[in-house]
């Protein structure tokens, strides 16, 4: 070999990624909804319940929660408590909910009242920690898909930064078709994958419920994971009976 020979970089052996090597990929998704109070927590908890039943380490994350009360020296939020109860990975609340706000108001307003500033960095860092401790992560958004978190960052931006497949919960009520389709459009505009949707019958006897669900099925380019009826006693376990999560990407094989 002379100094005039071309320099060729040594060829290094590329190791296959764990998924390619036959290991099960991790499951993770971002649960959003057509509105606030339409069943995101119920669906997320049902998903965690099903994941635990499938034998994996499953953890819920509610990155931003607004509305908390102090009990026995610890701040509690209903959503955080329900997700923690449904999963089987125990992590400090400061990791599963980096922004726990006391006031039950729009997050950017509650944050300002408490002189906090919601930014993505602590959320993304916490998400990495949760992922490291779990096989499956279910992230529940706050309110609807475009709820602001600060002056230039909203829930949709957070979903985009986490880059997770999205599950949309539709609260079945008059007006939900447009809310659902606008949300589907916003998800697509961010090049996020809409992995599935859930029809949650938040009210008894919605007129034309079947026709409304059919109209959504005809227009939403993702599988319907199930219809949760109005439950007398809503719980993760009860809701899970009506949902088939196996259509979601990387759902663990039982
Ligand atoms: N199918 C159902 N049957 C009976 N009650 C339901 C049903 N779905 C939701 N609920 C009840 O409605 C309330 C709101 O549901 P949930 O907390 O899941 O909504 P959410 O979208 O997570 O709200 P938020 O925006 O506050 O996070 C809860 O009390 C829940 O138990
Ligand atoms: Mg909730």
Write structural notes for this entry:
The chain has 254 residues and is of the alpha/beta class. Helices cover 34% and strands 20% of the residues. It has one domain (27-247): P-loop containing nucleotide triphosphate hydrolases (Rossmann fold), CATH 3.40.50. The chain has helices at 40-53, 78-86, 93-96, 107-113, 120-133, 155-162, 176-189, 209-219, 236-240, and strands at 27-33, 58-61, 64-66, 69-71, 74-76, 99-101, 136-140, 148-150, 153-154, 166-171, 194-200, 224-228. The strands form four sheets. The protein has a six-stranded parallel beta sheet with strand order 2-7-1-10-11-12, with helices on both faces. Helix 7 links the parallel strand 10 and strand 11 (194-200). Helix 1 packs parallel to helix 2. The longest helix is centred in the N-terminal third of the chain and has 14 residues, at 40-53. The chain is globular and about 45 Å long. It binds adenosine-5'-triphosphate and magnesium ion.
């Amino acid at each position: 070999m002379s100094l005039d020979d071309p320099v060729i970089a040594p060829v290094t052996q590329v190791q296959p990624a764990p998924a390619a090597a036959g290991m099960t990929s991790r499951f993770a998704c971002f649960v959003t909804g057509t509105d606030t109070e339409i069943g995101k927590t119920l669906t997320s908890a049902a998903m965690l319940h099903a994941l635990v039943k499938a034998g994996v380490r499953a953890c819920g994350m509610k990155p931003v929660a607004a509305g908390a009360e102090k009990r026995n020296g610890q701040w509690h939020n209903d959503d955080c408590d329900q997700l923690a109860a449904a999963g089987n990975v125990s992590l400090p609340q400061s990791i599963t909910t980096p922004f726990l706000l006391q006031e039950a108001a729009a997050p950017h307003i509650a944050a300002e009242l408490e002189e906090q500033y919601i930014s993505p960095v602590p959320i993304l860092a916490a998400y990495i920690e949760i992922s490291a401790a779990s096989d499956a992560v279910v992230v529940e958004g706050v309110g609807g898909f475009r709820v602001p978190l600060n002056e230039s960052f909203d829930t949709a931006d957070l979903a985009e930064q986490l880059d997770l497949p999205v599950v949309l919960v539709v609260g079945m009520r008059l007006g939900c078709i447009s809310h659902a389709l606008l949300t589907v459009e916003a998800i697509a505009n961010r090049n996020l994958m809409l992995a599935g949707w859930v029809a949650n019958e938040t009210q008894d006897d919605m007129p034309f419920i079947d026709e409304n669900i059919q109209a959504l099925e005809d227009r939403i380019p993702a599988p319907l994971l199930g219809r949760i009826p109005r439950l007398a006693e809503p719980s993760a376990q009860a809701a899970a009976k009506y949902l088939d999560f196996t259509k979601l990407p990387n759902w663990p094989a039982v």
